[in-house]
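Board notes (copied after class):
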Amino acid sequence: MLISNEPTFAGATWQPYSETISWALANTLVSGDVAEVYAKFRDAALNESPDVAGDSILFEGFAVYLPLVVRNYTP
């Protein structure tokens, strides 16, 4: 299978088929952006799928919350 964040598959390399895979989205995403992921498949005879599979992912980001520390200070 061939997976890419780009519809041209630039820089992508074929890898063995797997039902699940960890995939990194573009590191320039900010909350609210939509990322696209594309995939192609081929069989043991190297026949490629005629269509490109793809999907959109809404990136909601993540937040880091720090506790608020209040100290009573009198100079």
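Comment from the instructor: The CA atoms of residues 45 and 55 lie 26 Å apart. The chain has no helices and three strands.
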